[in-house]
Write a structure and sequence with these properties.
The protein is of the alpha+beta class. 38% of the residues lie in helices and 23% in strands. A 5-stranded mixed sheet has the order 1-2-5-4-3. A hairpin with a 3-residue loop joins strand 4 and strand 5 (85-90).
C-alpha cells in the first residue's frame, strides 16, 4: 500500500466513527519525516481516543503497524505515527490553538540565503 492509499484509509477510519473537520495534507515536499499529515477533531477525550484506536486497528489490518502513539494519557491531542502518515486527533480548542493546518500549509517563498542583503 502506498502512502496516499494509507492516508485515504486513515481518513475513512476517522469518518467511520464521526471524526470532525478531517484535513489531509501532503507534506512530502516539506519534510522527510512523513508524506501525509492528517488532522481531525473529536468531541471529547473519549472520542479522540476512539478515533485513534479505530485508525490504529484499520492500519494494522492493512499491514501498517503504528511506530508510536503520544498523548493518550491526556486525551486532548493524540499523535499516531504510521511512518508514511502522522495522524493528529485533537479536541477543537486544542486544534484551534495550535492550528497545524495553517503551519503545514505554508510554502517557502524563496531561499533567504540566496538573497543579497
Amino acid at each position: 500500500m502506498n502512502s496516499e492509499k494509507l492516508a485515504d484509509l486513515i481518513v475513512s477510519a476517522l469518518e467511520e466513527i464521526k471524526g470532525l473537520d478531517i484535513v489531509k495534507l501532503d507534506v512530502s515536499d516539506m519534510t522527510t519525516v512523513t508524506d501525509w499529515m492528517i488532522v481531525a477533531s473529536g468531541t471529547s477525550s473519549r472520542h479522540v481516543q476512539a478515533l485513534v484506536d479505530n485508525v490504529s486497528e484499520n492500519a494494522k489490518a492493512a499491514g501498517h503497524r503504528p511506530i508510536g502513539v503520544e498523548g493518550e494519557s491526556g486525551g486532548e491531542w493524540v499523535l499516531l505515527d504510521l511512518q508514511d502518515a502522522l495522524v493528529h486527533v485533537m479536541l477543537p480548542k486544542v486544534r484551534e490553538f495550535y492550528n497545524l493546518e495553517k503551519l503545514w500549509s505554508i510554502t517557502p517563498t524563496g531561499d533567504a540565503a540566496a538573497t543579497d542583503g
